[in-house]
Design a protein that fits this description.
about 475 residues; Aldehyde Dehydrogenase, Chain A, domain 1; 2 domains; six-stranded mixed beta sheet; about 20% strand; globular
Length: about 475
């Protein structure tokens, strides 16, 4: 048995691996071969009830646990994860279809997040407030919500488990996690390590199931106190509507249409490999993927030629081959991306490279479309595939306009050697995150995964994320004379 094995046909409720109440199972498929890897329990409403009830029973004792002890337990979990990096990397890579090196990177990131919040558990404080007289005292206390529902997608399951579960636990909440039915194996492996670390029964529960069954049951459950959702904007709106019925707070991490804004003075030798990686990593199946390239007109032809050559050289293959790119995760995702490719041609975008399936699994060639208009679907909608839409601009004003011409507001990446221009664009970007001369947040500890507009509202995994899982209590005291 592998070192992170967990029982098949089961899910994790109240500290135990158990079958679904009705015995239902889900097939988990390798995207490269389209063959079934294993089966897990298919949770329904009754299973969600069991998980929420277990979390509710565990909450009082877990919330009352010394926060330093909570942090120490979370760190034991992190230590077990780092000891099993290779096994966990293989689980995530095969389940999602990403190269083994990509799975390894995700496990290192997940470990870093969990370790970060292990250290933060006993650093959560309130504030003492000024008073109008020495006869009064005012202060605040951050308190856990209670039972937190966490619903995550299939693209980076280990990272998203860490980014949502670790701060919730550190703040004193208990958790019911529903991973995607497409790729639940890494979350199950992580919770098995949490079990070995010694978390009390009911503190962490993991149930996989279909959205209309387990997902709806969890996010509309009357005994859930807080909801965290990562996924599509449409589903996010539906979850907000369900949460409104129970007046439950929600944090949403939704879609993106992130631009790389490339000026003529940028270091192209640095920028172009990063731009290509931003749309081919995990086959473009990332919410922050750099799916739009806005390039200054004077270097447009050179950049498109170099980007297209680099994209055409990307090697695709199954996870164990550990090449540059794997397949799309499922038949549904393959059909969705294929539909965008057809629409881009129909709407008049110029295909530079790619634009077709390849191989036997759900593989799509890395694709570049040039001469893209702002009203084309390929420029407006989240594709979640290795498809890059190129537009050109003349000056900073036009670049700013194009950068913000999207309903999403997750990440904007600016490539320039002009510091003043970079600072102006960072200020004007209507997105929760801005990167300059890099893609995303490399090198920054505790960087907040912020978002704006249709990308949602969340600070997932960042330095203030612990606050998202607490509610503030204000205390005002009048000091009586003795």
């Amino acid at each position: 048995m592998a070192s992170v094995d967990f029982p098949p046909y089961q899910h994790f409720v109240d500290g135990k691996w158990v079958a679904a109440r009705d015995g239902g199972t889900l097939d988990i498929v390798d995207p490269a071969t389209r063959q079934v890897i294993t089966k897990v329990a298919r949770a329904g409403a009754a299973d969600v009830d069991d998980a929420v009830a277990a979390a509710r029973r565990a909450f009082p004792a877990w919330a009352a646990t010394n926060p330093s002890e909570r942090g120490a337990l979370i760190r034991r979990w992190a230590d077990l994860i780092i000891a099993e990096v290779e096994a966990l990397a293989a689980v995530e890579a095969q389940d999602v279809g990403k190269p083994l090196s990509g799975g390894r990177t995700n496990i290192y990131i997940a470990h870093g997040i969990i370790d970060y919040f292990a250290g933060a558990a006993d650093k959560l404080t309130g504030v003492t407030l000024p008073t109008r007289s020495p006869d009064y005292l005012g202060y605040t206390v951050p308190e856990p919500y209670g039972v937190c529902a966490v619903v995550i997608p299939w693209n980076v399951p280990a990272v998203l488990t860490a980014a949502n579960v670790a701060p919730a636990l550190a703040a004193g909440n208990t958790v019911v996690l529903k991973p995607s039915e497409i790729a639940p194996l890494a979350p199950f492996a992580l919770v098995e390590l949490a079990r070995r670390a010694g978390f009390p029964p009911g503190v962490i529960n993991v149930v996989a199931g279909l959205g209309p069954e387990a997902g709806v049951a969890l996010t509309s459950h009357p005994d859930v106190d807080h909801i965290s959702f990562v996924g599509s904007t449409g589903t996010g709106r539906a979850i907000m509507s369900a949460a409104a019925q129970n007046l439950v707070p929600v944090k949403l991490e939704l879609g993106g249409k992130s631009p790389n804004v490339l000026f003529a003075d940028a270091d192209l030798d640095t920028a172009i490999p990063a731009i290509v990686a931003s749309i081919t990593e995990n086959a473009g199946q990332n919410c922050y993927a750099g799916s739009r390239l806005l390039v200054q007109a004077s270097v447009h032809d050179e950049v498109v030629e170099r980007v297209a050559a680099a994209m055409a050289a990307i090697r695709t293959g199954p996870w164990e081959a550990d090449l540059e790119m794997g397949p799309l995760v499922s038949a549904a995702q393959f059909a969705r991306v294929s539909g965008f490719l057809k629409d881009a041609r129909r709407e008049g975008a110029r295909l530079v490279t790619g634009g077709a399936p390849v191989g036997d699994g759900w593989f799509v060639r890395p694709t570049v479309y040039d001469r893209v208009d702002a009203d084309m679907r390929v420029a407006r909608e989240e594709i979640f595939g290795p498809v890059l839409a190129v537009q050109s601009f003349r000056d900073t004003a036009e670049a700013t306009e194009q950068m913000n011409a999207t309903d999403f507001g997750l990440l904007a990446c600016i490539w320039t050697n002009d510091v003043s221009r970079a600072l102006r664009l960072a200020k004007d970007a209507r997105s929760g995150q801005v990167a300059v001369n890099q893609f995303h947040d490399a090198g920054v500890i505790g960087f907040p995964f912020n978002m704006q507009k249709d990308s949602g509202f969340s600070r997932g995994g960042g330095y203030t994320a612990l606050r998202e899982y607490t509610q503030e209590k204000g205390v005002a005291i009048r000091l009586l004379a003795r």
